Amino acid sequence: MQEFLTIALIHFVAVASPGPDFAIVVRNSVSFGRRAAMYTSIGIGLAIFIHVTYSIVGLSVLIKTTPWLYTAISYLAAAYLVYLAVGALKSGPPKDGAHEVQNGAIPQATLSDKKALWVGFLTNGLNPKATLFFLSLFTAFIDVNTPLNVKLGYGIYLAVATGAWFCFLSYLLSTSKVAQLIGSKGYWLDRTMGVLLIGLALKLVWSA
């Protein structure tokens, strides 16, 4: 129980910190509405299973100790973040009447459920910082003698908790009061998220 509580606390601090996942959920919530943000959040949660899987089998150590592989992943992730940032920076004022609140959201465009899911999945799955986080978690905080089924239980919790957190964030951002506050100026928040994504991409390249 103490091990689980430690993991849960560390995970909460990490998931609540602004990063690519946070930026893309905010961006999709503002630009495409609650449904797209929810599917993006689910994709982020599903991507956690990738990190959990290679951490359990020891591949995270290989990724960290193989410089060219880690660098390649970092550059790939940075390129993807820049791609997302460009789309965010292109956001402009909504057309007349397009900013009316519907279902607690103000979508300026549409994003399919499948694409929203993949955006979330790739954003988290390609994040090398997540690799480092799970490497630290499974080596420093989870005992080597912890049974495999317990580790899998931790993994399921981390995936569900991550998805639930970002779903909550999606809901919060798309409530009618927040949506009305954002109003027709929501594209500025979208552009801000674009700048943040570029900053995160540059940070990945710099630290690769």
From TrEMBL:
<keyword id="KW-1133">Transmembrane helix</keyword>
<protein>
    <submittedName>
        <fullName>LysE family translocator</fullName>
    </submittedName>
</protein>
<keyword id="KW-0812">Transmembrane</keyword>
<keyword id="KW-1003">Cell membrane</keyword>
<keyword id="KW-0472">Membrane</keyword>
<feature type="transmembrane region" description="Helical">
    <location>
        <begin position="39"/>
        <end position="61"/>
    </location>
</feature>
<feature type="transmembrane region" description="Helical">
    <location>
        <begin position="68"/>
        <end position="86"/>
    </location>
</feature>
<dbReference type="InterPro" id="IPR001123">
    <property type="entry name" value="LeuE-type"/>
</dbReference>
<feature type="transmembrane region" description="Helical">
    <location>
        <begin position="154"/>
        <end position="174"/>
    </location>
</feature>
<dbReference type="Pfam" id="PF01810">
    <property type="entry name" value="LysE"/>
</dbReference>
<feature type="transmembrane region" description="Helical">
    <location>
        <begin position="186"/>
        <end position="206"/>
    </location>
</feature>
